[in-house]
Amino acid sequence: MLTRLYIDGVWQDGARGRTMPVHNPANEAVLAHVAVADADDVERAVDAAARAFKTWRHTSGADRGRYLRAVAKAVEAQAEALARLQSLNNGKPLAEARIDVADVASTFAYYATLAEGLDESSEQAVDLPVQDFDARVRREPAGVAALIVPWNFPMVTTAWKLAPALAAGCTVVLKPSEVTPLPELALMGIIADVGLPAGVVNVVNGPGAEIGGVLTTHPGVSKVSFTGSNAVGRIVMKAAAETVKGVSLELGGKSAILVFEDADIDQAVDLVTGGIFFNAGQMCSATSRLLVARELERALLDRLVDRAHRIVVGDPFAQDVQMGPLINRAQYERVLRYVRQGVEDGARLLAGGARPERCGPQGYYISPTIFTDVPANSALWREEIFGPVLCVRAFDTEADAIELANDSPYGLAATVVTSDTQRARRVAQRLDAGVVWVNAPQVIFPQTSWGGFKQSSLGRELGPWGMHAFQEIKSVVSARG
Ligand code: NAD
């Protein structure tokens, strides 16, 4: 198991030899002790990335594409081991961890293709209204990028930044979440093995405020790409302002799923439960607010409560388990606090809200939870809970549904469930959300964009936009003759 820092092509301990324990959320056992970086280590990592940038920026797109494709192949070859490590450290059921690993491989393969095309596409001639000048606009790598990622999809959030950054020609310093460094270090082991030049990718573990603080203020870092909470996102943006770095933020959400009266109720049950209980609700895009047409409310709630009671919660490695534990005690207590607050605020608890009886005393397990009649101004309805808690309100008209869905400071994602294709298109256009699924589970393709409106995001990941985030734009204007 890899547990050290990776700086300038060398696995190493931190300057002061500090370590931190990493836990298994399913039973609270210590899995490993991971090396912790000091400010000096972060400095060395940024210096190594800056030195490597001098040559990496000039490698051809074709060469960078070859490295990325090799990573994709190696991830596929080691998929099962990576998935198991992720379940162990993050607590998600193995079936879900396998989906994450497949996503990581396809993200690297996609950006391999984009990198290969860069030799052709990174410079374009511009039509000018005069004959005396020739103008070309080029995209060039931004420089050293700091990548800061959360614990809920550790490898996926890393791949969504790392693959486009490398494709663009940036070098990087990655800071994994201190809660889930093990899968990311394993991914880094693969990247180290494909033979990238020393310093192109560096990894520094440690407490967010300490390590992240150095990265986000370091004058040698040109770009910060952050995924995590809004509270920390704001700190990152302020810190980066000092040296005017490019900043991309992927933050929280309180996404809505809208179920209309003409929906297929079986499909609605699958989409609603998948949207909130996948990864135990610890998803930025979790559709934690269900808006249901009043005429379907009773029938859908009965079915949802029945399904919630039948979801098997427990050890992520058990064959029959569909939902694992929450990530740690802080998250577990936070979710239970929201449940208590919801009851006090007058919402009606229909299912869950407590530790499942079948789970023993160890591990951070909470049953699939459903609240209805949730007051629109309550914390339960407005704040990101980041747990398996579904909040339900009924609506009377399509316009009401859209207004309720959009009444949030967030705007990451939304799901629309209806058999009326005209309505689906109309509603999708009116939702303030960066991603809308219509009668579909939360499938994500590297070819499409990822990110939200309002306070959910700044910039976009995936697709060409994900790579543009790591590029500068340069105009070259030449006099003719
Ligand atoms: P977090 O904000 O606590 O931590 C995220 C990362 O930031 C960690 O690596 C942490 O160590 C680091 N960090 C902490 N303090 C820092 C500082 N002062 N400067 C720089 N870095 C610092 O988030 P989390 O609890 O790990 O993740 C959950 C959050 O992530 C949720 O709000 C969720 O919605 C969000 N998220 C968003 C997306 C998206 O695509 N929009 C995807 C996944 C998770």
TrEMBL record:
Active site: E250
Keywords, alphabetical: NAD, Oxidoreductase
Involved pathway(s): Amine and polyamine biosynthesis; betaine biosynthesis via choline pathway; betaine from betaine aldehyde: step 1/1
Gene3D superfamilies, sorted: Aldehyde Dehydrogenase, Chain A, domain 1, Aldehyde Dehydrogenase, Chain A, domain 2
InterPro entries, A to Z: Ald_DH/histidinol_DH, Ald_DH_C, Ald_DH_CS_CYS, Ald_DH_CS_GLU, Ald_DH_N, Aldehyde_DH_dom
Pfam families: Aldedh (PF00171)
Domain Aldehyde dehydrogenase, chain residue ranges per copy: 11-476
Record GO terms (molecular function): oxidoreductase activity, acting on the aldehyde or oxo group of donors, NAD or NADP as acceptor
Protein family membership: Belongs to the aldehyde dehydrogenase family.
Name of the protein in question: Aldehyde dehydrogenase
